[in-house]
Amino acid sequence: MNPAILTAAHRSLAFGTKVKVTNRNNGRTVVVRINDRGPFIRGRVIDLSRAAAQNIGMVSSGTAKVCYQVIG
Length: 72
Prior knowledge:
Layout: E1 7-9, E2 18-23, E3 29-36, E4 47-48, H1 50-55, E5 66-70
Parallel strand pairs: 1-3
Antiparallel strand pairs: 1-4, 2-3, 2-5
Domain RlpA-like protein double-psi beta-barrel: 3-68
Family: Belongs to the RlpA family.
InterPro entries: RlpA-like_DPBB, RlpA-like_sf, RplA
């Protein structure tokens, strides 16, 4: 996974799927493309690249409660 582009990892969504991810703490959103498998830590549903995490303001916290919606 390239940390400089807007990508994410998900356990079951098809590669290439576009997903809108919203940070529930601040309402900021980003659209990412699934290009990897994961996360493999219990309780986590999606891993964002650093660029995507930065866009929704969660780099400093490392994790955040998010909502996601498949858009294509």
